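Handout for the seminar on molecular recognition.
Each group receives one record of this type.
Step one: identify the two inputs.
Step two: read the structure output and locate the region that could contact adenosine-5'-triphosphate.
Step three: write two sentences on what you found, then compare them with the reference statements printed after the record.
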Amino acid sequence: MVGTSELQDHVKLARDYALEGFYDSSIIFFDGAIAQINKLLSTLDDPLDRAKWMNVKKALTEETEVVKQLDAERRAFKDIPLGRRPPSPPISTKSSFVFQPLDEYPTSSGAPMDDPDVWRPPTRDNANRRTARGGQVGMRKSPQDGAWARGATRAGASGRGAKAAGSSKSNTGVRASTAGKKGPGSGKSGKADSVNGDAEDGKSRRGQYEGPDSDLAAMLERDVLDSTPGVTWDDVAGLTEAKRLLEEAVVLPLWMPEYFQGIRRPWKGILMFGPPGTGKTLLAKAVATECGTTFFNVSSATLASKWRGESERMVRCLFDLARAYAPSTIFIDEIDSLCNARGASGEHESSRRVKSELLVQVDGVSNTSTNEDGSRKIVMVLAATNFPWDIDEALRRRLEKRIYIPLPNSESRKELIRINLRTVEVSSDVDMDEIARRTEGYSGDDLTNVCRDASLNGMRRKIAGKTRDEIKSMSKDDISKDPVAMCDFEEAISKVQPSVSAADIERHEKWFSEFGSA
Ligand SMILES: Nc1ncnc2c1ncn2[C@@H]1O[C@H](COP(=O)(O)OP(=O)(O)OP(=O)(O)O)[C@@H](O)[C@H]1O
């Protein structure tokens, strides 16, 4: 069991380092805290506890993203010659990001944050606060400013996508983005051409939300991100078969809607399952980028929350919204915490209703309705879980494709290490084959931790025994000039142990042989 005081210490250190501008160290502590929560999550069965900790994880992930953004900004700023630097406020004051106070987090896995049955619906203030956190102030549209009006153009939507560089997540846990679509396997962030060829000509891309919950829709709409998730197939190491399947199941129906008719109709839903940290979320983001569609990134924790009667409405509204923005992909992470077997002990009436609503909605994703221009309103449900055996049987049937996302094999591990080390200098003595051999059983996330740890060893050596002031006065170039060497990897591997157990893998493989559908 993870000690919450240790977790709080890590979060505090992460924030202290961020405030002092030591972004690398800050990111390490944030990642460490998130890894602790992941570990905790893998031990929790109670959906409510899981939902609470998922919320904490989500908030910390957002904070990490902000620190990474600041770090990237600082690096970019450093690269501009002095004379050409624009007069801008110091980096630390640029973002209106506000850390969530530590005491807003649950104090232990079992301790209630609130009355678990009556969670407040998000308020506009909350939403604004989250928006500010992500540094996206003023970028989102409200229904009043025409975001829902007929005639909003795809080109317009894509333009918005091009505008924002950062990422932000939502108060509601729903995030949507319209990504630039590219050809299969093409390079990074593609230009905003269109799935149905309607981007450049400015035809209407999306209709108007016509449901009864305009407030809820507005709240969800506020969380429509103006940026692409920015992950491409190339950023995902290995998983060739999963990429092929996702391309066939999600991307191709969007490109060739006429072909995917009748018996060839697109799959209603796709489930990605496998051990934690194997790249399921990364794949979902890559699908969004490659599809160039509106991407709704929904955390189950949000949908599972028990605002009286709001949750089913939210599910309904989300799907209405996805249809209005079609073609869309709805990604539901940790779907097990929302859809564990119905009738399970402790199941709450409201969560039963949410599940039923989700089933109805997934059923309704029959892709028969059409846009004004006659193209079909394709909505695809993409779900991910580390506990596929906990999923309700009825939902399992509706997630027609069930794709196993395994631990990386040796080749994928090497690719993953290369991807992770893209931005740092690597010494010629680094033996990838040897590292891949010694990291058998590591997940992608574990390997990323190894790479991060190894890449920081040079700095650790340089600052060892120095005071804070001495460190601050050191030249950053001096700190970062040592390339990452094999000895750094050896040290990192000895510190970072694999997080996935053999028993867990066995259980996934068994479930795959029983229920997999690739
Ligand atoms: N195949 C991969 N290619 C590149 N990076 C990967 C891959 N798998 C995992 N990673 C790294 O691990 C991190 C976590 O991956 P991701 O969140 O996609 O895993 P997940 O399977 O969704 O985990 P969880 O089930 O815990 O949510 C990524 O940010 C990335 O750094």
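Reference statements: The longest helix spans residues 47-79. The mean pLDDT is 69.
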